Amino acid sequence: VQMYIGDGKGLPILNSGSSTFNIGSHYFDLKNVLHVPHLKQDLISANQFILDNWRSIHLYHFHFIVKDLSSEKTLFKGHVRAGFYLFHASPIAGNQQGFAAYAKASHDTWH
Length: 111
What we know:
Blueprint: E1 2-4, E2 10-12, E3 15-23, E4 26-35, H1 46-53, E5 55-59, E6 63-68, E7 74-81, E8 84-85, E9 90-91
Antiparallel strand pairs: 1-2, 3-4, 3-9, 5-6, 6-7, 7-8
């Protein structure tokens, strides 16, 4: 099984699972986490994050905001660097997998 990146190159998916991380006092779950060791950056599917945590993500040119869907309370604000919206998070103790990429689409979906 592979994950395909923008240049069409397939990267092997070695394992899958779930992860929990925190940003400040807020804890978040990631389900369907894929272990793709050849990726240069850890990636999060915005849609999967929203579904797993009942949150909204508001994207702007130079930052983004994550809000609780029910209260609309801002949970954190992140920044953009080199075209990536950055989550500066810490894995929960005992869960050192951290993040990995999540991709549902096949190679043909993007071409």
